[in-house]
Structures are given as structure tokens and as C-alpha cells.
């Protein structure tokens, strides 16, 4: 059956003298390799030279605080629902009196865990978040690990430090990230 | 007499050192060349441009566990790599590295051993080179090693014949078995009467056979890792493995030297009789040029290794017996006929 | 110097030759045989016959012994697989070897060793390639050519034996 006209008919001819001598083919091969010898090498010498991140890079998650240093997350669970890899789990709790300086909303996440082995860094949690609480940093990668327990990131490692806000590079990519 | 002996002793030490140094840096060069041919950089972490890499490799080799399999033949297991290294190093004794240096009215030849059967000596030592592999492979008491050893043996025997016959054509032209005389015979045309121009076929046959005798790709079937794990050195570890690998590079150095002597003019270089320098200066330049030729052929060995895939075993044997051997015989006959007709 | 070297080489040659016979492992035997060839080459060098020395190494140590080793490796002879030799064959081999020794002694006992004198017409180059070639192609031309015919016949025979019959499978 003729499917398309692109199929090629194979013809196996006996080798010509030139082909049986091997040497012309070997010389041609040597010519190709020596061309590569003088080519510019694409290698990046890693510890000295670091590769630029792409402007849309999505790295390690961070749970943001607001201007007053209060946690933004209200434990609504939308991120967990949106997550295609089901990497996020959380337990919510009610804000007590006197904790207004810690949590912005009346409900907050008591436990918030992301399993970095499951996470595919798609950024859908960031999209889903109504409080702009979860945020994938554009310049930090999830580091390598030795044990599986280490990969489950709890609040201790996710919530950003009140003094050092993780907004480095935020200005650089602001426009792009809003659009996407 | 005394001064000649002292000179020879120093010269042999220097040659020994140069051989080892070149072989050491060949290991780095191999990886660098491989990297560059594959658009990579190769090792560049140990020292500037990775120049200390051979040192790091040697340290690693020495500190690895010395392992001898329980069912191996212990003495022969140790003798294998030693034999390989011994035969690899012996050949450079007869290589003429330069013409001669005249000092205080006395002539010192830049050649370790001035024997008039230099080529036969080289050939004899090369034919012994396979013992290291065979003994080591058999003593390992491992099927893969044994297969590697057997491959090495049959390969060496097969390619020795074509190699010897290709040299015979050169011998007929030169009329001597002395390596120095072979080099001197290529001094015509201002140092450009190289044998490769008169004997291109012999040159190709010899180079192909040299690849086979050194067990280099495309003929590296004795250590072919896709079929035989590591071939004859499967069971080896530590510096014993290092000696095997090192002897391969030493062999490469020596065969590069022999190729340049027999076919590429040795220490002759174009325009050597036109330069207005003294004999000693010319000799030193010639030695440097000879060394350059050796380095080029070492590079050529690596270049071919990272270009061509490995032959299949029957292809290897077919090439040796059915192509190279008849071609070499035809070459000898043509050379004989031409010498008979032109009478020179 | 030279005579000391001679005695050393002779001692080594005899020792390794004896070890060829006495070692139980055939691989060791082959390796001792190679050592014997080396010492013989050393003797040739002492006799100023460099060409013969080199050819001895190339042909015997480099080619023939490699083939020997090659074959012995395939046999996989281990001490536990050696079969017992019967009394009869032991007696027969001792008798044969004894007879050979008697013949050798009888043949060599009256040999006059003679003495070598450095006569004025002594040619130190007699063992060199040029002399050897001239002698081979003049005085010993007929034996030389006959030997080559013999080799040719052997070669043709080997090719005939190794030739694949039509329809025979490749047994690699």
C-alpha cells in the first residue's frame, strides 16, 4: 500500500573500489573530527562561570509576608487543589487574640508542607493563590538532598525571613510573571 | 672511550625520562584531544589547563586497593604488567634521536645503542610486546581476560607479518638494517627525500599495522569493553592496571618514533643543508624536529581513536591477511623490480 | 667480562631448559622455553652474530612461542584435571629418553673441541647481515632455495587444510 511518496527505495549495491579501500572514507571522517577540534567549545566552566537563569525560571517556593511582616497565607487550600502533582498539604488553624502581628487573616496555616520530590515547579500554586502568599523564586533552586525527610519542606524552611525578603530579582521579572 | 660511555649513560637516562614524560602527558593529551574533538574541554581542573592531571591520576592509581584474585596465578599476574612495561620501554634504546654532537673533537651519536640491526631489534621487541598481555590475561583466570589475551596474540601475529614485509621494501631501498642509515638515506633534496614519497603503500601498511600492534582503536579488540568488559586487564587494579595503560602510551610513543624514522625522515628537516649553522646546532634543531614529528604521530593516534569505530573481529583478520599481507608482498615485488631495472 | 657473561648465560640457559621439563604447569614450561631462547640469543650476540640473535628472537620467541602459548592457553590444563600416567608409559618414556641419551653420548664423546685462535685472517664481521646474505646466496644457494620451496609447500598445505569447504558453516 502506498502511504506517501516520501518512502525511499533501498538499493544495496556492491561496494565500489573506492569504498572498499576504506581510506577515502577514513580521510573524510578525520576531516570532520578535526573541524570540531578547532570549534568554539560551548562548555560553561561552572563554579567560576554561572549560567544565567531564564527570565521565566521557577525555583524554590517561598511563603511571603506582607508589608508589616505578617504571613499572608490563609490556608484556603487552593494551591493544594491546583497542584497537579499533589505536593502540597496543609493544616489550618484559627488566629488567637494577640497574634494579629503574626498572621494577616483570621485563619492561617499551622502546618504547610511541600514535597519537593513531587513538585514539578509548574507554578500553578502561585497562580491559584488569592492572597499572593506562595511564590516561586526566580533565582533559587531546590538544593540537593541526602534523605527523603529532608525534601519535605515545612513552614520553617518555606516562610520567608522577616528581615530578608525574597524579592531579589522580582523587579526584573515582574512584568513577565504577571502576564504568564 | 670513557667520555663516550659517560655520555651514553646520561643520554640513556635522558631518553628514558623523555619517554616516560611523553607517555605520562599522552594520557592527559588523550583526554584533551578526545574532549576537543567532541566539542568539550577535557580535564582542566588539576592545575592550569589540567596540566597536573597525570600526577593526580598517578596518585589515584597508587592509592587504589591492590587486588589479586584468589584463583589467579600470583606470580604471572604480577609479571604480566611488568613484562608489558619492560617491552614497551626497551625499544627506544635504538632510536636515533638526532645526528651527532661534536664536542672537543669527539663525536657523540644521539642514539642509545648503535647496532647495525636496529630495525630487527625494534621488530623483535615489538613481537615480544604481546607476552605482557597474554601472560596477564591468562593469569587472571577470567574468561574475559583470556579472550582478550587470545585476541591480542592472534592480532599481533597476523599484523606482524604485513608489518615486516612493509619494512622489507624500505630495507631494499636503504640497503641497511641500521636505523641511523635509514634516516641518513632520507637526507637528499635538502632533507625532503622521505621514504613516504617513494613508498606510500608501505607507509600506509606500516601505520595500519602499528595501530594494530599498539592495540589502539580501530583495532583495540583485546580490551574491547562492549564485549569483553575490560579485556585482558579486567581483573587488574591499582598501579598494575596503571602499568598496562601506561605501557600502551609508551608503545604509542615508540611506534610514533619508528614511523617518523622509517617514513618521515627522522631528524631530517627541509632545508637543513641550507642553514648557515654549525653541525651541532643543526643536530639540535633536527632532534627538536624529530620530537615534533613524534608528537604529531601521537596526536594522529588519538585523532584516529576518536574518529573511527572499532573493527569487527573477522574484519580485523580479513584486513590483515587478505588485504595488507598481499599488498605488502606486491609492494616488495614492485620495489625489487624497480631497483633491478633502474639499477640503484 | 665476556667469559663471565658466557657462564652466566649458559647457567641460565641450562636452568631454564631444565625448568621447561620439570615445571608441572604447561604455561610455565612455555615461558621457561622463551627464557631459554633469550639466553641462546645472548650467546649469539657473544659470538658477534647479531642478525641470528635478532631473528631467533623474532621468529622463535616472538612468533612460534606466541602460538605455543596461544594453544596451551586454550587447553586449560589444571593440576586437578591431569590424568594419571600408567606405569607402562612411564617405563617406555624412561627407556626412550635413556636410549636418546646413549645415542647423544656416543655421538659426542669423540668430538674434538679444538681451540680457536685469533688468526690474522679472522673476520669479526662474519656473523653480520651482509656476510650472511652473501654466503646464503652463493655457497648455500641450493639449500636456501630448497628450504623456500619447502615453506611454500607447507603454506599451500596450511591454506588447503584451513580452507572452508563449500556449504561448511563458519565456526567462529
Verbal overview:
The complex is a heterotrimer of chains A (180), B (344) and C (172). Helix content of chain A is 26%, strand content 13%. Chain A is of the alpha+beta class and 180 residues long. Chain A has a domain of 119 residues: Alpha-Beta Plaits (2-Layer Sandwich), CATH 3.30.70. Chain A is elongated and about 95 Å long. The C terminus of chain A is likely disordered. Chain B has one domain. Chain B is built from 13 helices and 2 strands. In chain B, strands 1-2 form a two-stranded antiparallel sheet. In chain B, strand 1 and strand 2 form a beta hairpin. In chain B, helix 4 packs antiparallel against helix 5, helix 5 packs parallel to helix 13 and helix 11 crosses helix 12. Chain B starts with a helix and ends with a helix. Chain C is mostly helical. In chain C, 71% of the residues lie in helices and 0% in strands. In chain C, helix 1 packs antiparallel against helix 2 and helix 2 runs antiparallel to helix 3. Chain C starts with a helix and ends in a 10-residue tail after the last helix. In chain C, 14% of the residues are buried. Chains in contact: A-B, B-C. Chains A and B meet through helix 2 of A and helix 1 of B.
Short description:
Helix content of chain A is about 25%, strand content about 15%. Chain A has about 180 residues and is of the alpha+beta class. Classes of the chains: A alpha+beta (about 180), B mainly alpha (about 350), C mainly alpha (about 170).
Amino acid at each position: 500500500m502506498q502511504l506517501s511518496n516520501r518512502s525511499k527505495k533501498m538499493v544495496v549495491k556492491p561496494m565500489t573500489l573506492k569504498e572498499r579501500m576504506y581510506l577515502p572514507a577514513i580521510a573524510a571522517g578525520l576531516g570532520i573530527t578535526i573541524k570540531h577540534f578547532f570549534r568554539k567549545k560551548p562548555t560553561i566552566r561552572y563554579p567560576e562561570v554561572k549560567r544565567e537563569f531564564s527570565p521565566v525560571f521557577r525555583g524554590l517556593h517561598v511563603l511571603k509576608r506582607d508589608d508589616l511582616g505578617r504571613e499572608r497565607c490563609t490556608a484556603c487550600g487552593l494551591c493544594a487543589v491546583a497542584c497537579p502533582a499533589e505536593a502540597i498539604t496543609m493544616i489550618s488553624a484559627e488566629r488567637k487574640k494577640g497574634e494579629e502581628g503574626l498572621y494577616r487573616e483570621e485563619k492561617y496555616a499551622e502546618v504547610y508542607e511541600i514535597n519537593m520530590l513531587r513538585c514539578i515547579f509548574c507554578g500553578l500554586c502561585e497562580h491559584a493563590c488569592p492572597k499572593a502568599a506562595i511564590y516561586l523564586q526566580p533565582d533559587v533552586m531546590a538544593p540537593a538532598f541526602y534523605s527523603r525527610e529532608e525534601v519535605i519542606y515545612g513552614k520553617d524552611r518555606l516562610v520567608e525571613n522577616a528581615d530578608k525578603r525574597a524579592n531579589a530579582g522580582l523587579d526584573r521579572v515582574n512584568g513577565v510573571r504577571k502576564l504568564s | 672511550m670513557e667520555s663516550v660511555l659517560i655520555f651514553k649513560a646520561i643520554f640513556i637516562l635522558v631518553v628514558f625520562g623523555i619517554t616516560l614524560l611523553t607517555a605520562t602527558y599522552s594520557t592527559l593529551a588523550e583526554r584533551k584531544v578526545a574532549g576537543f574533538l567532541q566539542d568539550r574541554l577535557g580535564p582542566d581542573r588539576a592545575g592550569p589547563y589540567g596540566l597536573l592531571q597525570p600526577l593526580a591520576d598517578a596518585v589515584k592509581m597508587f592509592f587504589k586497593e591492590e587486588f589479586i584474585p584468589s584463583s589467579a596465578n600470583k606470580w604471572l599476574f604480577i609479571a604480566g604488567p611488568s613484562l608489558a612495561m619492560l617491552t614497551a620501554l626497551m625499544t627506544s634504546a635504538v632510536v636515533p634521536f638526532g645526528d651527532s654532537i661534536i664536542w672537543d673533537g669527539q663525536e657523540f651519536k644521539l642514539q642509545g645503542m648503535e647496532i647495525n640491526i636496529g630495525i630487527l631489534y625494534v621488530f623483535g621487541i615489538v613481537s615480544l610486546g604481546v607476552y605482557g598481555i597474554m601472560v596477564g590475561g591468562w593469569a587472571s583466570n577470567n574468561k574475559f581476560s583470556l579472550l582478550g589475551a587470545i585476541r591480542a596474540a592472534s592480532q599481533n601475529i597476523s599484523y606482524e607479518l604485513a608489518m615486516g614485509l612493509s619494512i622489507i621494501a624500505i630495507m631494499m631501498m636503504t640497503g641497511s638494517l641500521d636505523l641511523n642509515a635509514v634516516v641518513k638515506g632520507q637526507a637528499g633534496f635538502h632533507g625532503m627525500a622521505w621514504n613516504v614519497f617513494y613508498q606510500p603503500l608501505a607507509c600506509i601498511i606500516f601505520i595500519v599495522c602499528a595501530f594494530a600492534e599498539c592495540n589502539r582503536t580501530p583495532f583495540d579488540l583485546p580490551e574491547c569493553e562492549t564485549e569483553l568488559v575490560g579485556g585482558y586487564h579486567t581483573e587488574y587494579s591499582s598501579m598494575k592496571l596503571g602499568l598496562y595503560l601506561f605501557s600502551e602510551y609508551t608503545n604509542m610513543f615508540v611506534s610514533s618514533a619508528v614511523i617518523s624514522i622509517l617514513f618521515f625522515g627522522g631528524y631530517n628537516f627541509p632545508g637543513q643543508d641550507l642553514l648557515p649553522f654549525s653541525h651541532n646546532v643543526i643536530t639540535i634543531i633536527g632532534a627538536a624536529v624529530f620530537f615534533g614529528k613524534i608528537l604529531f604521530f601521537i596526536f594522529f593516534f588519538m585523532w584516529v581513536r576518536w574518529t573511527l569505530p572499532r573493527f569487527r573481529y573477522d574484519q580485523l583478520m580479513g584486513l590483515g591477511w587478505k588485504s595488507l599481507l598481499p599488498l605488502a608482498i606486491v609492494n616488495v615485488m614492485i620495489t625489487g623490480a624497480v631497483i633491478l631495472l633502474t639499477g640503484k | 667480562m665476556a667469559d663471565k657473561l658466557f657462564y652466566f648465560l649458559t647457567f641460565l640457559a641450562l636452568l631454564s631448559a631444565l625448568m621447561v621439563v620439570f615445571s608441572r604447569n604447561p604455561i610455565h614450561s612455555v615461558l621457561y622455553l622463551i627464557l631459554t631462547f633469550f639466553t641462546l640469543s645472548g650467546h649469539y650476540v657473544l659470538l658477534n652474530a647479531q642478525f641470528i640473535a635478532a631473528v631467533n628472537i623474532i621468529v622463535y620467541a616472538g612468533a612460534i612461542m606466541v602460538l605455543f602459548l596461544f594453544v596451551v592457553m586454550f587447553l586449560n590444563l589444571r593440576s586437578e584435571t591431569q590424568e594419571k600416567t600408567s606405569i607402562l608409559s612411564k617405563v617406555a618414556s624412561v627407556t626412550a629418553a635413556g636410549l636418546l641419551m646413549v645415542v647423544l653420548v656416543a655421538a659426542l664423546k669423540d668430538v674434538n673441541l679444538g681451540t680457536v685462535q685469533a688468526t690474522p685472517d679472522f673476520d669479526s664481521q662474519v656473523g653480520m647481515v651482509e656476510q650472511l646474505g652473501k654466503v646464503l646466496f652463493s655457497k648455500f644457494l641450493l639449500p636456501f632455495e630448497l628450504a623456500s620451496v619447502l615453506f611454500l609447500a607447507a603454506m599451500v598445505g596450511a591454506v588447503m587444510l584451513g580452507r572452508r569447504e563449500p556449504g561448511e558453516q563458519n565456526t567462529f
